[in-house]
Design a protein that fits this description.
214 residues; alpha/beta; Rossmann fold; Alpha-Beta Plaits; 2 domains; six-stranded mixed beta sheet; four-stranded antiparallel beta sheet; 27% strand; binds ribulose-5-phosphate
Length: 214
C-alpha cells in the first residue's frame, strides 16, 4: 500500500470509530471512503445508511452495510466523506468524483460531518477547478454564465446533471459560492463552507490529526 493510501486508511478507520450503534450514517464517495466502508462494516453495528453515489451504495451493500434511498430519513447522525482540498479554516473543494451535489445534501442533513483525507489534501488556499453539476436544459447558456468552465468527459450524475468544472480564480470562496448559487442552471457546486464541517481527520505518516471545527 502506498504512503498516501495508508494515510487514507488511517483517517477512514478513525472516522469509522466515531460511529455508534443505531446511528443514521451518510456515506461519501471516493478512494478514501473505500477504506471507510470495510472499517465500518467490520464493527457490525445496527445502522441505517444512505450513500452519495451508486459506487458507494454497491460497495457498502457488498460489505453488508444496509443502504436505503435518501427519501425515508429527514436527518442523519453523521456523514463521513473525503475531499479534494481542505483549507485551515475549513473550506473544502469536493467533487473530484462528480458526486458533490448528493454529497452536499448528505453533509447538510448530518449533525456531524466528518472529512477524512490523506496529508496531501490540506492547502493554504483553494485553487481551481471547482466541480459543478449543471442542468442539461439550457446547458450552453449556463456554461456561458459560469465561464470559464468546461464540461467534464464523465457520465451524468444519478440525478441527470452534467458534470463540469469552473476554471476561474477562486478569490474569496464565499463570494464564488454565492455567484454560482445564483445561476439558475447550476444544480450544485463543489465549494463546501466551514459551517458544514464539524471534524477534519487527516492521516499523516503513521498517525492521524483530528481537528474539531465546532
Ligand atoms: C467525490 C468527492 C471525493 O470525496 C473527493 O474527490 C476525494 O476523493 P478521494 O478520497 O478519492 O481522494 O468529492 O465527488
Amino acid at each position: 500500500m502506498s504512503a498516501v493510501d495508508e494515510e487514507k486508511r488511517l483517517a477512514a478507520e478513525a472516522a469509522a470509530a466515531l460511529v455508534q450503534d443505531g446511528m443514521c450514517v451518510g456515506l461519501g464517495t471516493g478512494t478514501t471512503v473505500a477504506y471507510l466502508l470495510p472499517a465500518l462494516a467490520a464493527r457490525r453495528l445496527r445502522l441505517r445508511c444512505v450513500a452519495t453515489s451508486v459506487a458507494t451504495a454497491e460497495m457498502a451493500q457488498r460489505l453488508g452495510l444496509p443502504v436505503e434511498p435518501f427519501d425515508s430519513l429527514d436527518r442523519l447522525d453523521i456523514a463521513i466523506d473525503g475531499a479534494d482540498q481542505i483549507t485551515p479554516d475549513g473550506w473544502l473543494i469536493k467533487g473530484g468524483g462528480g458526486a458533490h451535489t448528493r454529497e452536499k445534501v448528505v453533509a447538510a442533513a448530518a449533525e456531524r460531518f466528518v472529512v477524512i483525507a490523506s496529508s496531501n489534501k490540506p492547502v493554504a488556499r483553494l485553487t481551481p477547478p471547482v466541480p459543478l453539476e449543471l442542468l442539461a436544459f439550457g446547458l450552453l447558456a449556463t456554461l456561458r454564465a459560469v465561464a470559464p468552465a468546461t464540461l467534464r468527459d464523465a457520465p451524468p450524475s444519478p440525478d441527470g446533471g452534467l458534470i463540469a468544472d469552473h476554471l476561474g480564480e477562486i478569490g474569496d470562496p464565499a463570494d464564488l459560492a454565492a455567484q454560482l448559487d445564483a445561476v439558475p442552471g447550476v444544480v450544485g457546486h463543489g465549494l463546501f463552507p466551514p459551517a458544514l464541517v464539524t471534524d477534519v481527520i487527516i492521516g499523516r505518516g503513521a498517525g492521524v490529526e483530528h481537528r474539531s471545527l465546532d
